[in-house]
Amino acid sequence: MSHDHNVKDLIQIANDGASFYERATDKVQNPELRRVFSDMGQHKRDLVASLGTQLDDRSPSDVGGTVVGTFHRAYTELLAAVSSNDEKVYVSQLEETEDRLLAGFREAIEDEKDPKIKTILQDHLPRVIASHNEMRLLKQKMAV
Predict the structure, then answer these.
(1) Full-model pTM
(2) Least confident of 35-39, 71-75, 101-105
(3) Phi and psi angles of residue 113, each rounded to the nearest 5 degrees, phi first
């Protein structure tokens, strides 16, 4: 797999996350959740900007998101509409988005042959893990 393909995949997943977090920020009322969602969305936009510098012939804005991400957001909107606790729905679904990004990062790091790209991915990995863990913890707290 080429580094351009790995990077493009990660940008797509991060774009999915950024738009999903933005939508969730607009939908929930809890100020703390709004702050967390806003911060997470900004992290995804920063990640897209950083990874976008590694694309050979495109800008990150040319990459877009994924079909899976689009369906996931629509599914979440439907769940939230029929749920008595839309905040819990958003947290649960956003944690799944973090799962996708973390899995993508781990796969890309394992597959990447270009040492420069691998270093960039490894530099971002701690923040990706921290974001994943924060959403997982939030999900666990809301399950109680």
Answers:
(1) 0.78
(2) 71-75
(3) -100, -30
Run of H or E including 1: none
Q: In angstroms, rounded to a whole number, what is the distance separating the alpha carbons of residues 144 and 137? A: 11
Q: How far is it, in rounded angstroms, from Cα 140 to Cα 88?
A: 10
Closest CA to 124 of 51, 33, 70, 36: 51
DSSP codes of every residue in 90-124: HHHHHHHHHHHHHHHHHHHHHH---HHHHHHHHHH
Domains and CATH numbers, the chain: 3-143 (1.20.1260.10)
Nearest-angstrom CA–CA distance, 140 and 135? 9
